[in-house]
Amino acid sequence: MTVSPPVTTAFSDSDETDVVDLYLRHIGSGRAVMGRVMGGMAEVRSEGPWIHTDDGRRFLDFGGYGVFILGHRHPAVVAAVHRQIDTHPLASRVFLEPVAARAAEALAAHTPPGLDYVHFVNSGAEATEAALKLARAHGRNAVVTTRRGFHGKTLGALSVTANATYQTPFQPLIPDVTQVTFGDAAHLEKALTTRRDRACVVLEPVQGEAGVRIPEPGYLRQVSDLCRAYGALLVVDEIQTGLGRLGTWWGVDAEDVRPDIMLVGKGLSGGVVPVAAMTATEAAYAPFSRDPYLHTSTFGASPIACAAALATVETMEREETVARAAVLGSRILAGVRGTCAPYLGGLVREVRGRGLLIGIEFAEEQAVGELLLELIARDVLVNHSLNSTRVLRLTPPAVVEDSTLDLFFTTLAEALLTVAARLAG
Ligand SMILES: Cc1ncc(COP(=O)(O)O)c(C=O)c1O
What is the edge-to-edge ordering of all strands in the sheet holding 50-53? Predict the structure, then answer.
């Protein structure tokens, strides 16, 4: 391995506190060890596609688990959040909050037709929780989810996150959850026949954490039709795929599907403040609409988070981020395919993607970790995939310059060559 992790890490030039040691003592040994393996640096600054570490290095961030569609600290979002901090960051929750109202209006202007209601929360998992509870409020207690699907790790969300590694230690989870094969409409229909009018289907349009699994064209439409036919509530999780990540506002746009509930997160933050949302049709939302105390959270829909969400949507409109993501995504996918071509059938099994969500599937698990570290050694960050250990995931921002792309392809080629030679030797 070419990466030799330093033993200690400083916050900044002036503060010599050992971050790894603090992690060991106060956050956890696992994360501390991981930090060491990744090089021992601490990240201290960011802008656009770049992250800076305390040792003076600058990394191209093609990772971030899908959060940074607008890059880090987009100036328009930062300015909006600053203004909000200077005026009214957190609300009394007694009076109405104008920023929440405007952010909901802005988001609803882009959701599929009919999804006019917005319930802001603090994280993706909370959006899933809200959806599961809303489904229950309609008597939809039988949840159908997809194998390898990822929807978060709080107890309810974990119940529909189909990964035994994360589920097993926390059993029993919520009851009556069935997993069906992603992409197999017949399997879904079989599950729905015995759960008529009691079912809630939860799925991603493209599975992200499962390693960028793209269903055959027509699948989402079939899912939607089956939900209508069997009286099931359809929850589409766009937390990773939404807000331009796939080169469209939403993954469901490809098949003109209108879910009852749609979840949004990650990119809604503008790379600045954590915020997510559950959006719903008027009919689906009715129980929450009637009773605002049925599902609440102290920090949910805070002015500061809503200022970030509003500025994010407005920035995406102004900068035509979705169209840019589509163009950039095609270019990056073609470039990654070209770079990986010499290894296809050997080290690399497949390169797949849509928009700015791209997966490289390897023949063996080891290649993912090795390539991740080789890229870090060359100042590039990418993601692994929680529900598919053989897939390296790229989630670049839509704000990358063309010259930076060339740098990325050259770096990827060098890193692949090193890993291929090592694994062959
Ligand atoms: C599709 C999807 N749903 C839900 C989540 C959970 O979001 P969070 O990590 O913000 O709780 C994720 C996170 O990766 C995700 O990709």
Answer: 43-47, 50-53, 58-61, 380-381
